[in-house]
Write a structure and sequence with these properties.
Blueprint: E1 2-13, E2 18-24, H1 26-31, E3 37-42, E4 52-55, E5 58-60, E6 77-83, H2 87-93, E7 100-107, H3 113-122, E8 125-131, H4 139-147, E9 152-158, H5 167-170, E10 176-181, E11 188-189, H6 193-202, E12 208-213, H7 216-229, E13 233-236, E14 252-255, E15 262-265, E16 272-274
Parallel strand pairs: 8-9, 8-12, 9-10, 10-11, 12-13
Antiparallel strand pairs: 1-2, 1-7, 2-6, 3-4, 3-7, 5-6, 13-16, 14-15
The structure holds flavin-adenine dinucleotide and FE2/S2 (inorganic) cluster (FES).
FE2/S2 (inorganic) cluster binds at residues 241-244, 246-251, 265, 267.
Length: 288
């Protein structure tokens, strides 16, 4: 993990208040594993003191090619896909090429190959389930799994079609794609868990590994579907964070353990957990 001041190379507006931010940081880019995140610090802003956590969406070489994450030798550019929701992300949206940012990365343990590979090998297909900006955590794992030849499918839901950003980046890695919007402007009208449920029901004889990132309710519903049909499921959590380093305990969630269970920090023990380890239900909903 490195704490660096990095330069913005691009900050491209997308639909629905989303942006694609690229920064140059060869040392950090080479160290990144799929599913990890960074803490971004806006320099010279006394009104936004805390760093903001962002998933690492993609890693590329300076000429735009994706880095090889195993060796990482060509990786130089780190990309973030973000949505403007408050003061910090609004200020991020104003960043121009050449501006500087504080970047603490890579953080968290991400999707660990030793955890998911045995299940990926046993599965007929890997199902990625994304809600809104949760999509940002899944591109690197999808790319890594595609390089290893695994079959994958994406279920992606948002409020409206403007929220379905990044779909084209996923297409080369996926055998199929199911989109959902709450207002029905694209794909299934309603939550993304509905097409997921239907797909699982149509293919009861198959084995799947699920990888999900999105709002708490979507993760909980996805975890319940996976559990009901006996599929392993990994969830990447996006709790609010103070330090990102395991110190403040602000990101803790309840997990199953001995006795009354225990707590784990999303920033250090996560952000990726096996879904059946998390204590789902109202008592554990993160404060945002
Ligand atoms: C590990 C991790 C990875 C993340 N990856 C991304 C990403 O790739 N792209 C992205 O756009 N966002 C991501 N987030 C969420 C992002 O950190 C917040 O949206 C951001 O910090 C908000 O900052 P702000 O100053 O703009 O908003 P604030 O002014 O702090 O808050 C504005 C509104 O957003 C809500 N909010 C703030 N943080 C969160 C959160 N973590 N989850 C849900 N609601 C929140 C607040 O309750 C409030 O309603 C991630 C969060 C975590 C913990
Ligand atoms: S954010 Fe401080 S312990 Fe996780």
């Amino acid at each position: 993990m490195y704490d660096e001041i990095v330069a913005v190379t691009e900050n491209r507006p997308l639909t629905g208040g989303h942006f694609l931010l690229s920064v140059k940081s060869p040392r950090q880019a080479k160290a990144i594993r799929p599913g990890q995140f960074a803490m971004l610090r806006l320099l010279g802003r006394s009104d936004v003191l805390l760093r903001r956590p962002m998933s690492i969406y993609d890693v590329q070489s300076s000429n735009g090619r994706r880095g090889k994450h195993k060796t990482g030798r060509s990786a130089e550019i780190i990309r973030f896909l973000y949505k403007v929701v408050g003061r910090g992300t609004q200020l991020m949206a104003e960043l121009q090429p050449g501006d500087r940012l504080g970047l603490l990365a890579p953080l968290g343990h991400g999707f660990l190959a030793e955890d998911y590979l045995p299940h990926a090998k046993a599965a007929d297909e890997i199902l990625h389930v994304a809600g809104g900006i949760g999509i940002a955590a899944l591109l690197l794992p999808a790319g890594e799994l595609a390089r290893q030849g695994f079959r994958q499918r994406l279920f992606f839901g948002g409020g409206t079609k403007a929220d379905l950003v990044g779909v084209d980046d996923f297409k080369p890695h996926m055998r199929g794609l199911a989109l959902a919007t709450e207002d029905g402007s694209r794909g299934h009208r309603g939550f993304v868990t509905k097409p997921l449920e239907e797909y699982l029901a149509r293919h009861r004889e198959k084995k799947f590994l699920l990888m999900a990132c999105g709002p708490w309710a979507m993760l909980e519903a996805t975890a319940a579907l996976a559990r009901r049909q006996g599929h392993p499921c990994l969830v990447s959590m996006e709790n609010r964070m103070g330090c990102g380093l395991g110190v403040c305990l602000g990101c803790s969630i309840r997990v199953h353990g001995k006795g009354h269970g225990s707590y784990q920090r999303v920033c250090t023990e996560g952000p990726v957990f096996w879904a059946d380890k998390v204590v789902w239900g109202r008592g554990n909903i993160p404060k945002t």
